[in-house]
Each structure stands twice: as C-alpha cells, then as structure tokens.
Predict the 3D structure of the following.
Amino acid sequence: MTEQGQAVTEAEPELFFGSVDEFVREYLRHVYKRRIDGRNRCWAGRWWEHDEAVIRLEALWRAWEHLRLDPATGMSVWWRDHADHHLPMLMDPDGPFALATEGDENLSRKGEPLPYVAPPPGMFPDARD
C-alpha cells in the first residue's frame, strides 16, 4: 500500500522465451543433449505432433520461466524437480515418442542437440506480444 492507501502491484516479469517452441528450439535441445537412438531413448523432431509432449514441454518451459528468477537455487530446482522428471518420461521407449524411431529428424548422436523440426507457422504464438 502507498501512503494514499492505493494498492501497489508488482509488474509480472517478462518472459525470456515467448513460446514453448522457442524454449525447445533455442534452449532445451541445446542443453539436454542425449544420444537418441530410437531404442533406448526416443525423441520426435516433430514433438509438437504429440499432445503429451506439448503439455509436458509447456510445463517445463513455464517452470523454467518462473524458477530462472531465483538466482540461488532456481535452476537446480528446475533440473531436479522438472527436467529430470519429464524428459525421461518423454524419451522412454514406451513414451509419447515411441513411434519416432527412425530418420534424421528423430535421431541424434552423443553430444548433438535434440532433433528439431519447426512447427507450422502460428502454432505457438509469442506470448510476449
């Protein structure tokens, strides 16, 4: 409250990434590099065609946006409680990408970014606009 009794509202922090697509494309696939062979670990370059994946990746993005603001332990909490939970579920051979087992758009070698195929234009509008 101010001296005049008016409520003070804190401004919402601006998103770093404008969409789940930007988060996956620019961040996640580059920091979570794994060998994707379609047998032990699966990933779909067209992740956006899989409803469960979109929901889990959206949750990862939103949690990252919130926890990045905690300079002390935010990223540790994000990795431990979010990435380390959702990504193995997504990459499980029986998970949402179970049929994405072949082709360059679904496979990667050790140390390479996760495969990525751009979604159709307008599918993930920038939330900062």
